Amino acid sequence: MTLDLIRIALRALARNKVRSALTMLGIIIGVASVIAMVSLGQGAQRQVQSQIASMGSNLLVVMAGSQKSGGFRGGLGTNTTLTPEDVEAVLREAPAVAAATPTVSTAVPLVFGNQNWTTRAEGANAAYLSIRDRAIADGEFFTAADVRAAARVVVIGQTVANQLFAGLSPVGRTIRVRNLPFRVVGVLVAKGQSQFGQDQDDIVIMPYTTVMKKLLAITYIPSASFSAVSGAATNEAQKEIAAILRQRHNLRPGQDDDFTVRNLTDVAEAAEQSSKVMTMLLAGIAAVSLLVGGIGIMNIMLVSVTERTREIGIRMAVGARSRHVQYQFLIESVVLGLTGGVLGILTGVGASFALSHFFEWPQLISTAAVFGSAIFSMAIGVFFGYYPARKAAALDPIEALRFE
Amino acid sequence: MSAEAKPVIELANVHRIYETGSIRVHALRGVSLHVGRGEFVAIMGASGSGKSTLMNLLGCLDHPTRGTYHLDGIDVSGLSRDQRADVRNRKIGFVFQSFNLLSRATALENVELPLIYAGIPAAERRRRGRQALAAVGLASKENSHPNQLSGGQQQRVAIARALVNHPSLLLADEPTGNLDSRASVEIMELFQLLNRNPDNTVVLVTHEPDIAQFARRVVVMKDGRIILDQPVRQRRDARVELASSLYENPLEVTLS
Predict the structure, then answer these.
(1) CB within 10 Å: which end of chain B, N or C, has fewer?
(2) Which chain B residues are within 8 Å of A8, Cβ to Cβ?
(3) Can you tell me the distance from the alpha carbon of A221 to that of A209, in angstroms, rounded to the nearest whole number?
C-alpha cells in the first residue's frame, strides 16, 4: 500500500512537471546557498587558521613591561628587567616550553655595493627558525657559536635579497649594517604577507647578542619568543613562564607583572570565532531562502489539494482512509523537498568548487551541511506538506464529490 | 445465520439533522427500510425529498443523527470515519451520475482503485480489474482514458469499479442522469443483468419514473419520509427493449 501511495504521488508530480520543477527550485536555491555559504565560511576560516599557524607554531611572546619613572610610563618593552638569562631559565625550568629565544629588533640601513635598503633587524638565537616556523632557502642559519661570539653574520629575507642583490646570490657576500660589515650566511624561504599585512620577508635575522652589543649597546632584552611543546600546552606554558619570571624578578604577590605574556592561541581563537560567526551569518541568510522555498511547497500543495478535491472525494468514496489521502499528499511534498534538496546539494557543491577556485581557498565541502540540508529539506517537505495534507484528509467525502 | 436471512439494508427510524449555524435542516424524519439480498430497489423523490441524504447514509458517507443502520447485519450507524471508509471499501460499490472517474488514469487503473485501499497486491488487482471490466463488456478498453470513452462506456467503467470488490450493495445515484436514452437503457440492462446474480443487491436513486421502472421495487420519498414502498408494476426489461430496436442507434451499432 505504501508503495502504491508513493506511485500515486509520483504520478501526480509528473503530471505537473513545470509546476513541480518551479516548486523545487525554491528548495534547490535554498539548499545550494546553505552549502555554498557554509563551505565559503569554512574555507575562510581555514585560511585564517593557516595564516595564524604560519606565524609560528604554538608561539608565546613575552614583552618586557613598561618603565615607570616619576609618573611617566613608557611603552611595552621599555623596562630593562627582562634578560637573556631569564629566557634560559624559562627554557630550563618550564616543562611546557620547548624552545626559546630572546628577541630584540631595530631598524637598520643596509648597504651592498651601490644599493641600500632599510629594514628591520631581528636578533634571535638558533631556535628562531623552529619557533617562528621559518626555513632557510639558501645557505644556512647562524649557529649557537655565532650567538656566543656576537658574530657579525646575518640571514636575510627574500625582499631584502631582491632589493640589495637583484639576482646575485647573496650567500657569502658582505653587506654593511650601520656601516659595520656583516657576512650573509643564509636566505629565508619567502613567506609573504602576515595576516596583518606585514611583509614577513622584509627582515634580516642576526644573533641577538650582535644586536644588543654591536647595534643597540643594551644589556636587557625587550621581548622573547617561546614555543610550547604542543598547541594544547600553550596555556600551561604561559602560566609557567609568568611564574618563573615573577620569581626571577622578585615580584611579591599582589605586585603587577613587569612583563606581558601574549599567547597566539588567543589571537587564533578570536579570529576563528569571528569567521565562525561570519559562517553562521551567511548560513542563516541562506536558511531564510530555504524557508521561503518551503513556503513555496506549502503554497503549491494547497493549490493542488483544492484542484484535486474531487479526486480526493472519489478516493474516499471507494474506501481510502483519511491517512491514505494524507500520506499521498505528504509523500508529494516530501518528494518535492527531497528532490529539491538533492539537486540543491549538487548545485551547492558545484558552487563551492567555483567559489573556492575563485578565491583560491581550500575546498571544504561540509559533510554536516550536505547531510544536514538533505535531512532539512525532507523535514521541510514534511513540515510544509503537513497542513495541506491534513486539509485534504479532513475533507468531507460528500462535499468533495460535489466539488466542481 | 444464513446470508439470506439477513437483510442487506436495515434502517430503523433513522433521522438526519444538519445544523449549520442557526439553520437546522431535518433531512430525514424517521426512515425505516429493509432491503433483502438480491433486491433491486429504486428510490425516488423530488429534490429536497431527502433521497440524497438517504443515499449518503446508505453509502456510509454519512451517519444518522438518530436511529440505526445495519448493513449486512452489522451496525454501521456509530462507526468512525476510518471504519466507514473500510465499510465503503469492502461492502459498497458506488455509481455516480457524473461517473467520477480519475481522468488521468486508464480504465483499468480506475477499476483497480478500491483494491489499492483494500491492500490487494498489484498482480491480483490487475486480474480482478480485468475481470470486472470484462463483466461490463469493456475488456478491450482497459488502457483507454475516460476522455477516450463515450458517456455510456465511462459509466460502465464506473460500474466495473463498483463491482471489483464484490460489494454487498451496489449503490447508484442517478446513473443515467448524464446519458442519452439509448445509453441509459444499456446501463439499466447492465444493472438488470448484474441483479440476476442473487448476491448483487442494487439500490438506485433516480427522479425519473421510467428509469425506476427497471427496478423490482420502488420507494418514494417526500419531506424526509418514505411515503410509498411497493413492487414495480409493469417492470421494464432493458434487454427486450434494446432488441426491439426501439433505441436503434446506427452509429453505436456499427461501432459495437
Answers:
(1) N
(2) 116
(3) 10
Q: Whole-angstrom Cα distance, residue B239 to residue B79? A: 40
Crossing angle (nearest 10°) for helices A2-15 and A322-359: 60
Q: How many residues in chain B?
A: 256
Hey, are the CB atoms on A401 and B118 less than 8 Å from each other? no
Distances B59 to A189, A314, A315, B86, B187 between C-alpha atoms, Å: 90, 13, 14, 12, 20
User: B135: helix, coil or strand?
Assistant: helix
- Nearest beta carbon to residue B85 from set A314, A316, A401: A316
Contact A97, A237 (CB under 8 A): yes
Domain boundaries, chain A: 2-51+270-402, 101-227
Query: How far apart are alpha carbons B233 and A383 in whole angstroms?
Result: 61
What pLDDT digit, counting tens, does each position of B159-202 carry? 999 999 999 999 999 999 999 989 999 999 999 999 999 989 99
Boundaries of domain holding B20: 3-255
Residues 6+ apart with CB under 8 A from A236: A96, A228
The CATH number linked to B8 is 3.40.50.300
C-beta atoms of B114 and A322 within 8 A: no
DSSP A38-90: HHHHHHHHHHHHHHHHTT-TTEEEEEE---EETTEE--TT--S---HHHHHHH
Q: Can you give the pLDDT at residue A273?
A: 82
